[in-house]
Amino acid sequence: QTLSFNKNFEELVSLNLVHNRINAKWKPSERVTVAAEFRNRLYWGEEVESNPNFKLSLRNKNEKVNLQKTWINTPSLVVHTNVERLYFDFQGRKLKLRLGRQRINWGIATTWNPNDIFNVYNFLDFDYEERPGVDGANMKYTLSNSLSAELSYAHSGNRNGSIAALKCSFNKWNYDMQFITGWLHDRPTVGTGWAGYIKDAGFKGEIQYLFRDGDSAGRLNMSLEGDYMFRKGWYMNLGLLFNNKGLFKSLSNWNELDLDLSSTNIMPTKWNMIVTAAKELTPLFSARMSTVYAPGTNLLIIFPSFQYNIATNWDLNLFWQSYFIELNEQFQSVNHRCFIQMKWSF
To answer: DSSP letter at 47?
Structure first.
């Protein structure tokens, strides 16, 4: 269940969701795998009733082929199924080939992934652990234990929706590194990423540049991240994201902030910082606290979460998201959301 409300609890909006996934794989031989994964969702509540186009918001914009089905679509209840994965996979000694609906994951960092140009992950969507996929082809050739090349293509079905890129990955100075070049929505793009350690602290980074095309200016997204595990079990993560086309000013309306994140709009604000602390308080109970701040707009997002393992394959989760922003030169609380989730695996 999700509850959304303003600071005075004057506008309380509820949304209920039963979310089911069915994952199936067939291995006719040692090298060949055929996979199909389905995401089934049943929604009801005031958020459905207040949005006549609620069904349209459930479509994954990365997918070219429409493999979704709305079984029930009423003003108060929606039942929706989408084929999340449907691919053929071949694993050779050095060559790996995957065709169909899949996730092409080129991101390295935990929160913000400029290198993940095919199917960027929205870190605010807690309920999508499997993350979105695309319709395309991926071919990876491993030259050695520390050197590989990966060629991928996908299309979203929209105008200028094609993505084609080459990634080269290698290990140098105990760092995993990658270089990317290709075309993103018919515009040339280049990028790089790395992951390693500075003493005992993890250090990751990603840079992606989309070249100028006609009236469209060049776009640069860059993220840096460090994390550390303390002796008493505390985990800390610090992240920074720069988006050269992001907002850096006070807004007059909350709707000016586009949180419909994409591979070019990873965050709508120019400078973004995130701090995350997590700890397993007991073997069954863990807690996490993340805070995002964007100067200029003075956007502040606070989202703590708690997870309790009731039994084997049975979890109870509580998520909270609070949004604050400077509107008309006043710092205001604009939205709060509370999520309660029960999760079973079979």
So the answer is: H
